[in-house]
Amino acid sequence: MKWSKGTAERVRVLVLSGNLGDGHRQAAKALAEASRLGTREAVDTEVVDFMQRVYPQLQHVVKYGFLKMVEKTPSIYGYLYHRTKYDEGLSPLFSLFLRLGRRALMRLAAEYRPDAIICTFPLAAAAVSLLKEEGRLHVPLITVITDHTDHALWLNPATDLYLVGSEQVASALRARGIASSRVAVSGIPVAPRFHAEEDRTVVRQQLGLQPDMPVVLVMGGGGGLLSEGIRSLLRSEAVCAGMQLVIVCGSNRAVMRELEEELAHRPSGRVRLLGFAEDIHRWMSAADLLLTKPGGLTTSEAVAKALPMLLYKPIPGQEEDNAAVLMRAGVAVQAEGGRALTDQLLELVHDPARLAHMRGRAEAFRIARPAERAWEALQPRPQPELSMSKAR
């Protein structure tokens, strides 16, 4: 990428994230952390929540509506997702929504005066692209796709470069007519700490876990995971007696309270409940298996840690796409709806050969240092026609 200021001065990069799911924020934080590593061109990064700054009055309504639709009517969400996956151009309603935030986004750009804008949130990428198309903004736009899929919502005419998680996504973008010069396979950005090698026995001792008993980490994204399936694990004597469960509830205090009440009736010293965990990379290092929904960031962190996954109830749409990619890669299996989750979990945990095979597949599938590779993809390239200021 050819920065507008050249290499003699520091470059200002605005990273726009969003609050519809924790993955967009985590990817933005990973990019910001990676920008401070190494001796590459000096970069000052600022991470901003697009929804909070551009739609302060609407953000809570939009987030509530999105989460409720996913929770209560996932089939409708899935229908809308697939219906719009290959849409060309903006719908009138979506275009109106973006235009409502135009002035606030221009104020944000004027405040930070960025030399480039990176978006880990599709609505932010669409809004920046619209301003560029209208001639109101003249900086490179880089879109980081945080799922293993190519939904049209991520794709916008004024995007200069797409950073994608796999060659499969890159091929899908090229099939849509996007030039190879505008696509780079960097991996989905995860914090550099997820690539650190850690001794499992030592980490388990430091976290207060028994070193010689299997550890299953349960995650459901930033909002936490609670369902009859998870309750069934807590009610299973075979599960609670035969392994250590670490359940991450995220920032959802209601989930934490409900699980605490569940455990009050079935006390077990082998079940740990966590809220939002900054050291989740250490819990992944300690675990034998991750039970999770297939969000792009959580699963990418697990792949970086070569942690086998059991995928549970993917949301129709991008989570189903993610699950398909991960299963084809051999790094995950998906829980079958017709079988008890406890049976499938016990089957995997007590099959060390299969878990070892999945770890090996994860090591082959993962892309080393994805957040740092993202910055490397943005460095000046020798061919002038690939300059970000000229790419279209």
UniProtKB/TrEMBL annotation:
InterPro entries in the record: Diacylglyc_glucosyltr_N (IPR009695), Glyco_trans_28_C (IPR007235), Glycosyltransf_28_UgtP (IPR050519)
Compartmental location: Membrane
Domain Diacylglycerol glucosyltransferase N-terminal residues, every copy: 24-190
Coiled-coil portions: none
GO biological process terms held by the UniProt record: glycolipid biosynthetic process
Annotated GO MF terms: hexosyltransferase activity
Main location: membrane
Any Pfam family the entry gives: MGDG_synth
GO cellular component, one term: membrane
Keywords of this entry: Glycosyltransferase, Transferase
Residue intervals of the Glycosyl transferase family 28 C-terminal domain: 216-362
Family recorded in the similarity comment: Belongs to the glycosyltransferase 28 family.
Protein name: Monogalactosyldiacylglycerol synthase
